[in-house]
Each structure stands twice: as C-alpha cells, then as structure tokens.
Amino acid sequence: MIELEGVTHRYGEGQPPALDGVSLVIGAGERVALLGPSGAGKSTLLRSIAGLVRPTHGVVRFRGRPVTGASPGELREIRKEIAVIFQEYHLIEPYTALGNVLVGRFGHLPLWRVLLGLFPRADRELARRALAELGLADYAQVPVRRLSGGQRQRVAVARALVQGGAVILGDEPVSNLDPATARMVLELLCERNRREGTTLVLSLHAPELALQFFDRIVVLRAGRVVMDRPAREVTPGDLAAAYGVRTPGAPPGQGGGAGIAGAL
Amino acid sequence: MYGTTPGRRLAVAGVLTAAIAWSVWVTGFAPSQWDLSAVREFVAGMFPPDWTVLPTVIAKMGETIGIAFLGTLIAFLLAFPLSFAAARGLSPDWIGAPVRGVAAFFRAIPEILWALLFLVATDLGNISGILALAAHNVGILTKLMAEVYEAAPAGPQEAVLSTGAAPAAVVWHGILPWSLPHLFSHLFFRFECNIRTATVLGLVGAGGIGHLLMLHRSLLQYDRMLVDTLGILALVLLSDALGALVRRQVT
Ligand SMILES: Nc1ncnc2c1ncn2[C@@H]1O[C@H](COP(=O)(O)OP(=O)(O)OP(=O)(O)O)[C@@H](O)[C@H]1O
Ligand SMILES: [Mg+2]
Fold first, then answer.
1. Which fold has domain A1-81+166-179+194-233?
2. ipTM
3. pTM of the entire structure?
4. Which of A52, A88, A103 to mutate to test the interface with B (most CBs of B within 10 A)?
5. Whose CA is nearest to atom 31 of ligand 1?
6. Sequence spans of domains, chain B
7. Topology of the domain covering B52-250
8. Would an 8 Å CB–CB cutoff place B156 in contact with chain A?
9. pLDDT band at A258 (very low <50, low <70, confident <90, very high)
10. pLDDT < 70: residue spans in chain B
11. Cβ–Cβ < 8 Å for B68, B133
12. What is the Å distance from ligand 1's center to A43 Cα?
C-alpha cells in the first residue's frame, strides 16, 4: 500500500536530515505505530507519505504509483485516499466543529458544492455521527476556537474518519487526551481498521498504547528506522533500548548505553 | 535622547537649522509680508453664516458619502480577484509580478490626479470622483489584501489540501475564513479615508460638498463657505466615529 525507498529529507542546506535513508513497506490493512523521541522525524515521515513534504532523496509510492513527482491531478487522487490527523490539528478556526469535520468530504464533492458549502444530507449525517462517536454530539454547532485542546483534537480525528480513505495517518492523534479518551479514540480507529481494512499509521508518545493497539512497531531515531518489529515480539526493554534510554529494568551495555549520545 | 554625545547633538542642531533656512528661502515664507486686511475681509464676510444653504450642504454631504462608498466598493470588487493573483505563493510569478506592478502604478497616482484625468475624459463631477477613488484604491487594496493572504497560517490550507480538494477550495476555505476580518478592517479604513479624500476631490470639480465649497468661493460667498466648512468638519468627524465603531466590531 505504502512504500518508502531510501527517503531522505533535509529542511534546509546544512541542516541535519530530518529523515535519513528510510525504507519501509506498509501493507494494506496494517496497523503501524510510529515511535521515537521528539525530533526523530515522525511528522516528517507522515507528511512525506501524504505528499505534503517532498523528500530531497528517495521515492514514496502509494499503491505502486510514485507520490514524489506525481502530477497535481494524481496527487489529488492520492490525497483523497490518505486522511491526515495533524499534530497541531490544523482546524479552520472560525468554522464550527461540524464545518471542520465536513472538510474531510471536500475531495469527494464537486467544486461548486465545496465553494458554496452545500453538503449532501448523507455527508452531514456522516459528520454528525463521527462527532457523536467521539463524544462531541453537543458541540457540532460550536466554533472550534471555543473548544478545549482535547475537543479540538477529536474534531481533527473526526475529519479524518469522514474522509473515508484507504489510509489514515495520525500525527500523535491522542497527545492531548486523558487516558480513557485516548483509548476510546484509538479503539475507534482500530475498529475502522478491522471493519474496512483501513491502513493505520499513527505516531505516538505512549509505548504502552502502541503495544496494546497496534500490530507493528516502527521506531525512528535521528531520522533512521532503528526498530521495525511485530508488536507481540516487542518487550518494554526493547523499546527503551530503541529510544536510547537506559531503564532500571534493562541490562546495562546493550545498545541503550550509547543511546542518548547516539540520538543527538 | 539618552546616550547621545554632545557632538552628535550639535550635528543634529546644525542639520535642523540648515533645513529651516533652506525651506524658508525656497518657499519665500515671510510673515512680515502677509496682507492681513484680506484675512480680515474674509473673516468678516463669513459672519453671519448663511444658513439658507444648509439643505444643499446636507444633500452635498450625502453625495460625498455616496462617492466615497461607490469608489471604495468598485475598488474592492476589482481588487478581490486581483489580490489573489498578486499574492505570492498563490499564483505563479509570471502572473503575480505584472499584477503587482499594475497595482503599484495605480496607487502611485494620487486620487486628485486621477480625478483631473477623469474630469477631462467624462466631464461629469460625481462619476469622476467615484472613478478616481476606485482607480487609486484598487491599487492599495490589491496590495493590502494580497499581504493578508500571504500572512495566513499554513495549517488550515494544508488540512484542506490533504483531503484532495481543488486548489480553489484551499484558497476559499483554507485562507479566506482567517483573512475576512482583516479584509473588512482594511476595507472600512479605506472607506473612512475616502470620505475625507472625496471632499478634497470636490475642490477640483469632482462632485460633492467640496465642489459646493469651491463654487461658493468663486462667487465670494464667504458666509456660505462657512456652512460648507462646518459640513466638511461634520463629515470627517462622522467618518472617524464610523471607523472606530467598525474596528471595535471587527477586532
Ligand atoms: N518546518 C520545518 N523547518 C525546518 N526544520 C524542520 C521543520 N519541521 C521539522 N524540522 C526538523 O526536522 C527534524 C524532525 O522533525 P519532526 O517534526 O519530523 O520530528 P517529530 O518526530 O515529529 O518530533 P515531535 O515528536 O516533537 O513531533 C527536527 O530536527 C526538526 O528540527
Ligand atoms: Mg511531530
């Protein structure tokens, strides 16, 4: 479904690469958790899959078609299939929660409907249901600038859910939620994965959530993939080593030792 | 003035003195040569004011507001599409650069010059005033509005883009909602300025209260000029109040 081949990205000349030769194949229907310390390149990786960042080297393919160097028309077709939950939500501030969720339908509607804001009844229903599932039924008509951080994050999740693409990319989609709500949101995304085979690639900061909800764990550090393994084969010690953090439980001198210095 | 050295202060004083001397010399500004009797005659002629022209003055005030309003509106309607073409990052440079150039040209010519041009061309006061304001302000608004879009946050644009929406949708939903309050704020400020400018344009014959003032002046009806002047004063105060009110609503 998604292939990365030697993807390297530098934001500027002379800057260290945000991604450094990342190769990754993600199959249809997989649930991939992307872990790694802050600045590891998780956002950059997700953005290059969505065609929002053009890697300086390497190729990204979606369903065998290159995303890198696709024509504007092709890129629109690809983006329609890849829903993104942004780390900073990227909501349209003056719009209501419902208005923001309906943005997810833009790729499917004729331009005149999008410009006039005339959405088919079915789309409105879909958007309302998504908000209700995320516990925001009462906030549908509230401008998002009056919502709390966690509520805003859930609006961003709802927008991705109604887009109904083959892939959902989530950049720390539960970072602002309490533990119970975070689990509820991940459960909702996993249910979409089980029912419709939607591929999930989500970056997370909580390893225990990654182990619980995902079937594959990819750890990035300083722009490189330092671990890529099925979740059931991953132990907390492995994660600590991959993060480059020495934990009390992990035996000393096993890769973790040089970790922090290596990451920097 | 903290931290300046005596030498520096001396240099500033020297430059200032030279500037004053030069300005007085080139302008022939010499109060001793003023003929105060003309002023006395003028002031005496103003009193008592001739209030019979008040209805005309009020009608002409309305005309000035109308000129300012239509001039601003036409400028906005033209600037709206042009501003998208002029905005960096929204249109390619081979479109943007010429549009920005034309806009710069239009706003470089003062309203009063546009008014004289249109007066020669159309021979109609009010229309010349409207077109003059429209021509100058289309240049100003195109620039101001394009700068608003350029400053719009990238996040919402990216969010719309990532749904596979058309570029027009990215502009319409990703940029405009954030921009609207700023656009209206610019628009009302220009309207406020244009009310003031429209009175001045009247002095060269482009309609409204200014035109009336010029007429009374040429007939030496100073008692009526006083009423005209009070009308202009009221108009300017009114536009200031309107602008303040609108700015409070928008921000
Ligand atoms: N817009 C940008 N311009 C310049 N450099 C950037 C930009 N975005 C990211 N970087 C750099 O790229 C590197 C990777 O950043 P990225 O945002 O991908 O990390 P991340 O893993 O998502 O981190 P976090 O967990 O903090 O979100 C960082 O070193 C960062 O400084
Ligand atoms: Mg990030």
1. Rossmann fold (3.40.50)
2. 0.88
3. 0.83
4. A103
5. A39
6. 52-250
7. MetI-like fold (1.10.3720)
8. yes
9. very low
10. 1-3, 250-251
11. yes
12. 7
